[in-house]
């Protein structure tokens, strides 16, 4: 927001502000969907049910990287100077929706812990993050070593800030009013699989558990 305010102060500058949702697609290395693929693969390796905190109906805005690039190009030509455009797809994406995709890809089960336990977890997210990292890091290292992967930017490591609740639904009506249309209007299992296959192809994701 600070950057947007500073840009607005530049006299005579022709610009638009693009606020993108959670970007995913080939090339994604640090995004939420990629991290969920990593964690789901670990639970496939362990043969355990993946347990999740918070509410399965929490909303998250998403946009495929191809649509984001197309939207930026489109707004250069059709956007109104000084306006803010939310570039988020048409899907009512939830955290549960993303979990369903990764669970399907790795053939695992997942479940949410009770709301009471989630409430207790929220009191000390740092401790929760430490426990989760302790459970995930060793198996991930083992999986990578087994596949001969000595260096990868992918990791199941999480910071406590990543466990904080989010429930955001941004409106894209202003973007649609310019005539823009999404080629990938919602997150699908195949779109998520594309992210995985891209990582496997370049040798940064162990392929042992990939079907």
Write the layout of secondary structure elements.
Blueprint: H1 2-8, E1 17-20, E2 22-24, H2 32-46, E3 50-52, E4 62-64, H3 65-78, E5 84-87, H4 95-106, E6 110-112, H5 115-123, H6 125-146, H7 173-176, H8 189-201
Parallel strand pairs: 1-5, 2-4, 3-6
What do these coordinates show?
The chain starts with a helix and ends in a 10-residue tail after the last helix. The chain contains eight helices and six strands, in the order H-E-E-H-E-E-H-E-H-E-H-H-H-H. A two-stranded parallel sheet has the order 1-5. A two-stranded parallel ribbon has the order 2-4. Helix content is 45%, strand content 9%.
Offer a concise description of the structure.
With 211 residues, the protein is mainly alpha-helical. It is built from 8 helices and 6 strands; from the N terminus they run αββαββαβαβαααα. Helix content is 45%, strand content 9%.
How many helices in DSSP terms?
8
- SS elements, strand count: 6
Radius of gyration: 19 Å
Report the sheet with the most strands, covering strand number, pairing sense and barrel closure.
2 strands, parallel
Q: What is the percent of helical residues? A: 40-55%
What is the terminal-to-terminal distance? 42 Å
Strand order of the largest sheet: 1-5
Strand content: 5-15%
Features:
two-stranded parallel sheet, 211 residues, 6 strands, elongated
């Amino acid at each position: 927001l600070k950057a947007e305010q500073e840009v607005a102060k530049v006299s005579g500058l022709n610009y638009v502000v693009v606020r993108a949702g959670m970007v995913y697609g080939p090339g994604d290395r640090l995004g939420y969907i990629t991290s969920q693929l990593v964690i789901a693969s670990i639970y496939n390796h362990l043969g355990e049910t993946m347990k999740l905190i918070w509410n399965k109906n929490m909303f998250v805005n998403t946009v495929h990287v191809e649509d984001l690039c197309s939207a930026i190009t489109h707004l250069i030509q059709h956007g109104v100077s000084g306006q803010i455009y939310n570039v988020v797809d048409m899907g009512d994406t939830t955290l549960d929706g993303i979990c369903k995709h990764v669970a399907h890809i790795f053939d695992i089960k997942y479940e949410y812990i009770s709301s009471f336990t989630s409430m207790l977890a929220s009191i000390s997210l740092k401790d929760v993050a430490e426990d989760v990292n302790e459970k995930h890091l060793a198996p991930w290292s083992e999986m990578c070593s087994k596949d001969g992967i000595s260096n990868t930017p992918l990791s199941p490591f999480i910071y406590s800030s990543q466990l904080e609740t989010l429930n955001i639904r941004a409106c894209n009506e202003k973007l649609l009013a310019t005539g823009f249309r999404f080629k990938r209007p919602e997150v699908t299992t195949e779109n998520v699989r594309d992210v995985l296959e891209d990582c496997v192809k370049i040798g940064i994701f162990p392929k042992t558990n990939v079907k």
